[in-house]
Fold this sequence. Notes:
Chains A, B: This is Fumarylacetoacetate hydrolase family protein. Chain A is an alpha+beta fold. Chain A is built from seven helices and 21 strands. In chain A, the strands form five sheets. In chain A, strands 1, 2, 3, 4, 5 and 14 form a six-stranded antiparallel beta sheet that branches. Chain A has a six-stranded mixed beta sheet with strand order 7-6-19-10-11-13, with helices on one face. The interface between A and B is large, with 51 and 51 residues.
Amino acid sequence: MKLASLKSGRDGRLVVVSRDITRYCAADNIAPTLQAALDDWENVAPRLEALYRDVEHEAVPCIRFHEHDAASPLPRAYQWADGSAYINHVALVRKARGAELPASFHEDPLMYQGGSDAFLGPRDPIPLRDEVWGCDMEGEIAVITDDVPMGVGAAEALGHIKLVMLCNDVSLRNLVPAELAKGFGFFQSKPPSAFSPVAVTPDELEGAWADGRVHRPLLIDYNGQPFGRAEAGVDATFSLADLVAHAAKTRPLSAGTVIGSGTVSNRDADGGPGRPVGEGGRGYSCIAELRTIETIRDGAPATPFMRAGDTVSIEMRDAHGHSIFGRIEQVVEQA
Amino acid sequence: MKLASLKSGRDGRLVVVSRDITRYCAADNIAPTLQAALDDWENVAPRLEALYRDVEHEAVPCIRFHEHDAASPLPRAYQWADGSAYINHVALVRKARGAELPASFHEDPLMYQGGSDAFLGPRDPIPLRDEVWGCDMEGEIAVITDDVPMGVGAAEALGHIKLVMLCNDVSLRNLVPAELAKGFGFFQSKPPSAFSPVAVTPDELEGAWADGRVHRPLLIDYNGQPFGRAEAGVDATFSLADLVAHAAKTRPLSAGTVIGSGTVSNRDADGGPGRPVGEGGRGYSCIAELRTIETIRDGAPATPFMRAGDTVSIEMRDAHGHSIFGRIEQVVEQA
């Protein structure tokens, strides 16, 4: 099924959306918010699934769904933890600054605790106080779990993934080096992220959901031009289930936990760094990766970070070309 | 006023507690949960204050308040960000491993994003899967804000501090070095924290609340013996308002954001590292600090981290000896 939260108050209003993302039926008589549904998922999900079947069969009255009316599926969440499943991205960033990739990075995922108190809506502007901070997009896959016990393995973790979304993990790149040098991880360099208008159960992905990975290209346009076409199922060293298990090693995870894949990133077909889409490559899911490649190739980055007025869109389509999650579409705005 | 959340469901049941923490009156007719109260604080707080006056004047029927029935005031929160206001603690940890303290640490606070999806109750056991992980307590002051706009200064941030609590920021010390070496900050090394049974408005602290600092000793007992008596108002390089402003530099903070002071830590009267309480010093608010002092003095730490059965209590008393927030009291339990 497909779920969305229409903008309303702090937590939105839960609706069931048709498979083609054109119609919705209010579901707040079943659960007022997506968080409330997740808090009692075992009981609530079958009722939402039944409504979804009715929506698909046009057995209930539906209303036209406008993606710009949607908040992020969880407008605020109790947990947002973002991994780095695509080691290619991490390796490139390190190579650009002349650092080796520790072998342990292939066994032990990178993950940071992100802020989750207020996500941006999928069509909300990205408010930026200072362009010098180096605003960047990061196109990612994200999942929402139910309650996950402490110490689960990846196989068990897979069953706790209830919903899948896309994410724009907004980053302030020029604040990262000083912040990471302090040793406590990202904080000011990670302002609120945005998620796709619609969250879907894994079965909606059909064959594209396998091994805890989404096997479809992540379509990223920057200022209206194709920028990223990376295959999300390729070069993912860790599955989303691996990342859930990593997060749950020393503590349980509460229902409504959002876990991110990190920036989707592919090596080039020849094993080297990815080429731009315009040169026949799969492009990039963030500007920083292009800048690292420019640095490795030319000694310095050429592409600037995002400035007021720059736009990014993030989408994924099924094998028939239909949007699965709706489209994240954001413009940077001086705040 | 003093507020608590009695254990009930995922978010507890909001009650107003008498100043002496012996009686309560249900407040869920005003707001069902503390988060709901914070979401609409401007309207809700005056009604809670009115009920608090009635509780104090015994103008409403009250029920005996048992601290072990309380969850953390926010049983789960949308944000938990923990600073390091007490640079003495940071300096000692660095000195023990032979590292200098960067001068910038006196201007730019350390802060990490913590997990907030499920806090431990103040009398809940600390579940520990593996003693090898090096379980430690951290005694801290924590505040809860209302909505804080992006970019506020410290003076304005002060007005957004609505409630004050104590915190036990449980840490798994032996997981810290490898995790910080990866560069993304704490994650597995920071399992759920616990907060005091009662959260209080700053006016309840009377003269002890000044300059965004709480000027009372933090009383920590370990296995029934006095372990820490550090003055929370002393050696706090950053105020709680400074930390709120730091958190809000690049993004707004949503109502119900919890900001921690970091481990309370005092230098000795002679300017050196603190001495144990038993030797006339102010002791320590975590075991790691004692271990760093042992390392600096003797070349190696002698005091082990917490093991199953070890207990910690954290409390603060007013000038008349009355408990302000109730007592955090936890035992480590094999999970």
